[in-house]
Specification:
- There is one protein chain.
- The protein has a 3-stranded antiparallel β-sheet, with helices on one face.
- The protein has helices spanning 7-19, 21-29, 31-55, 62-72, 75-84, 99-113, 115-132, 143-153, 189-206, and strands at 158-166, 169-176, 179-186.
- The protein is an alpha+beta fold and 208 residues long.
């Protein structure tokens, strides 16, 4: 499921690029504009990484949080986004412009055009990359805490429901705005709650 997280915002970003190519091409011909947008775009980008780190409570381990910052700001990661967004069409090598420079400038323009798409795209791309690339750590993700926080920020009303069905068998449900969105059966409420909120977390991320 995690591998599909970024698909929806990616399509929206690609549509935005295609509709505003003139704006992005201005970065190729105006070095002062590129420098200005690059500096501001980088600051916006770092703040989005910080939001991700706080969402996953990764700042409890500062050394690990620094690794996350370095990872998302690495050439490998930015090149991955370049491939997804088909930036090769801008032929940066012909203008002697680095990928990072154009990337930060692009983010500044994207945020200006559509702040919601900007935030959603980075959030889901960060989560996709983080959950599919193995990074050794002792960090345990509290999916319930994160899910409740995301739901609250979206104005969603959620509640838990659980009941014993028979001997050694119980069910656990997560209800969002009166609708059951996660249903699990098993032997332990504690175990089911963890599994249910992990599933609900990905449900929220894939919800339009």
């Amino acid at each position: 499921m995690a591998k599909k997280i970024y698909v929806i915002p990616l399509k929206k970003v690609l549509e935005t690029i295609n509709k505003n190519k003139t704006l992005f091409r201005k970065l190729l011909n105006d070095r002062h504009l590129l420098e200005y947008y690059k500096l501001l775009g980088k600051s916006y980008y770092i703040l989005e990484i910080e939001k991700f780190i706080k969402m996953f409570k990764l700042d409890k381990n500062t050394a690990y949080a620094l690794k996350i910052l370095e990872m998302f700001n690495s050439k490998i990661f930015i090149t991955e986004i370049f491939l997804r967004l088909n930036f090769s069409q801008f032929k940066l090598e012909d203008y002697n412009i680095l990928e990072k420079e154009f990337f930060y400038g692009f983010l500044y323009i994207l945020k200006d055009l559509d702040k919601k798409v900007f935030e959603l795209f980075l959030e889901k791309f960060f989560i996709h990359y983080y959950t599919t690339v193995h990074i050794s750590s002792n960090i345990k993700i509290n999916f319930k805490e994160i899910s409740v926080s995301i739901a609250k920020s979206r104005g969603l009303e959620i509640r838990e429901s659980f009941k014993e069905i028979s001997v050694n068998k119980v069910y656990f449900k997560i209800i969002q705005n009166g609708k059951v969105v996660v249903y699990k059966e098993g032997k332990s409420i504690k175990t089911l709650r963890k599994k249910a909120f992990k599933e609900y977390f990905y449900y929220l991320l894939n919800e339009k």
